[in-house]
Design brief:
six-stranded parallel beta sheet; 28% strand; alpha/beta; 3 helices; eight-stranded mixed beta sheet; single chain
């Protein structure tokens, strides 16, 4: 039986679990550091915390981190990789991903998302429902592209940055690390690191 462990019993984790079942994973179990106070996440059981997961890795054919916070997700992912976890990519059956795109371990691609040819995604990336990543984009580790956000061709998004729901990024723009792009914003120029961008055109807050 294909058994997937998800670290992080969150709403994001529920979407991962649902996606995993559609991808053929027969059983999904959650781990969360709020255990044993927290014992369920939706219809799925929470059976331990991070330490219990690391101690039982041999029981699982795959592990994915279900934590929305980009920095925490990357830290937990590296902890699992260092412990020898098998960390797959999850791709919803309705997502359209070019065979010429590359996606790093622990990344998830949700329903209706599109990733076009030549794009390269690091590890622990989230491409959320209905988001599009056009040709030749480069996304660093831990990036989150929110539902309905659109990246034009050749966009670079550095580590841990978050592109908000419905936002858009013009072709060939480079977004720095730890950047937050607000909902519906339109990024038309390169950005510095660690800024929050709002509006059309997007400007630092």
């Amino acid at each position: 039986m294909k058994h997937l462990a998800v670290l992080g019993a969150s709403g994001h984790g529920k979407v991962i679990a649902d996606c995993a079942e559609l991808c053929g994973w027969e059983q999904v179990s959650f781990f969360d550091d709020r255990w044993p106070e927290l014992t369920v996440n939706g219809r799925w059981p929470v059976i331990g915390g991070t330490n219990q997961l690391i101690e039982s890795l041999s029981q699982f054919q795959g592990v994915v981190v279900g934590i929305g916070n980009n920095g925490i997700r990357l830290t937990k992912l590296q902890q699992l990789l260092d412990a020898g976890a098998q960390v797959p990519v999850l791709q919803h059956p309705s997502a359209q991903v070019s065979r010429y795109a590359r996606i790093g371990c622990g990344s998830v691609v949700f329903a209706g998302a599109v990733i076009n040819a030549g794009s390269e995604l690091g590890k622990g990336v989230i491409i959320n429902s209905g988001a599009t990543v056009d040709h030749d984009c480069v996304l660093g580790d831990g990036v989150h592209i929110s539902p309905g956000a659109n990246l034009a061709g050749g966009v670079v998004v550095a580590e841990r940055s978050w592109i908000g729901i419905g936002a858009s990024v013009r072709q060939l723009v480079r977004i720095g690390s730890d950047v937050v792009v607000g909902a519906g914003a339109a990024v038309v120029a390169d950005t510095a690191d660690a800024v929050t961008l709002l509006g059309v055109p997007a400007r630092p807050r």
